[in-house]
Amino acid sequence: MDGTSGVARRQVARWTGVLMVVAAVSFGAASTVHWGVPVLGLRDPFPGARVPEAVIGVVLLGGAAAALARVAHAWGIAVAATGFAILGTLVGLRFTIGGGVPGDIVYHAAILAALVVIMVALVTGGGRRTPRRPAQGSRRPRRTTGA
What is the pTM of this model? Predict the structure, then answer.
């Protein structure tokens, strides 16, 4: 319990936050590629994807930062950020399938799969870490107020 509301505090497992960072960096690289800047030898100027992929990356990075810093409501922030990224990727996949560029389709399908893995881990508990409880019978030291 978090000591204030009587509700167990859900924390995001570190590996889930790290995967969110990797996905965010991927979206940043994709946005950069769509600006026409070569990244790892790839160049794909597509003005329509520049800003949306950057926004998805920033939102995911914010969710990952909250998760890794273990701020209050980190789990909810991570779920919301991942959900936003999944929806945005589905929209992007719709456009890329219409465009028929195989590399774009593969990227969107792969990042969508990674985002779904992150979301499943978050909602099923595999990506959550519950704070440890003291062993039964042990006592926590009482807090004393200064004086």
Answer: 0.77
